[in-house]
Amino acid sequence: MYVIMDGARGEMHDVEEATESSLLKLGAGASIAGSVSGEAEEPEVCIRFEDEEDGARFVRVLVTLQWCMLVYIMATAVTICSSNYTKHASKMDAVLLTMDIMTIDISSCFFVLGGYVSTYVYSSVGHEMWGEVRKRVVAQQFGNMWVSTVLCLLFGSIDKALKHRLHAKDAVLTLVEGITGLRVFDAKQSVDEPHTFNVSMWPVQSFVWCLLSVHGTYRTNEYLRSKFGDVANYIISGMGLCGITLFTLFGMLHSNTNVFYANATSIMYRMLEFNLGVHAFYLLERSYTLLVGLTRILAQIQPVMYAVFVATWWSEIGVTGQTDTKICLRLYPRNNCLRDHHAFLLRGCVLGLTVMSSVQKAPKLESGAADVVAKAVKDTRVLATCVAMSWSAYVITQLVFEMTFSPALVFENGALMSLLMPAILYATCFVYTHSVQTAVTDVVEAAGRRVEGVVSNCFNAVCGSVLGPTESA
Fold first, then answer.
1. Would residue 277 count as lying in a domain?
2. How distant, in Å, are the alpha carbons of 361, 382, 393, 421 from that of 434?
């Protein structure tokens, strides 16, 4: 993989204009650059592959991630248009339970595939260059989170006040989670407990921290393999599955506790799913027989697996779960209770592995492969921004429509609103991503590098005299 980066910002230039000495070949047959043409708008990352199969696999994963994000923002629109959030009767209540179940399955699939593609990039470009790419992506997503948090605090407060649900503790939690990206404080589902205004931003918050785990997880796998040989394959498989299985079982067996609620949107659990994708890529690259065989089986029964998932989602249409139960299996604090026979969490990981099996045998890219890859990267950026901005944008859209028309008319046409809001969200985020997002990312990345420098200097000042070599008298 060829990588070209310039300066602290991580700015990347055209591969065509780069000199041969400026190319750093690190191994898997792709090139990352920052612009395809000096005339067009410069994308954050442009990738070119020497091997058409590698390029096809990368694009296939990105397209699948895009579909996951699209389903997520559509499900979020249904959630915010339901009676639980509008405080008015809504026709969307009939499909709310279906959307919750889809959200759980699709988000698990997203994190498994996210771990897979992140490890692919990491193993291709190496730790040092991965660190630069990761800093840029993390800065971009933190920029999205901070903008979304500001919008949610401003307009979400107005929305909460109109519905008589405004509490200072919720605003404080929204600010803390928005700034730090740490979704770990919302562990109790009771509406009397603190809950964030920005209900749907948790996938972005979890993903940015998951990216920090790639190097450590990969190096741990390497260490285990160097110590135990082929036996390490079983250890790595156990590491990937045990935690997810335990959380799934505890959530099912203790449905009257906060176990499921506290982990469904938390960083800790989602990192387990992300690391499952990391482990899967690592073992597949080393041709672990058991996983290769499982992948082939899933690839052959793929249509059946998809049909089972669709049938499960479809069967929940029209089912209305309880809302008055204080503690149950619940995705968000104001959502309905889920039925506890679905093996949530683990099931979504199976969906992710099934999709991964199809990615392994993706068809080769045709002519114009570089343009296909560049478009996939840009589309992924836009949809990632949509996920971060979804709840704040939907709140703003509802407030504008209620002021323009009337609340009664807006609530009566909740089904139409659930289609209009994602369209407005995508159009807004498309403009934002291709205009000011780069400038926002530059500011966030520069701030991050300054903080990194301060922390490094403090560490050297405090620990340098202890850990550093001492001069003999």
1. yes
2. 33, 8, 17, 20
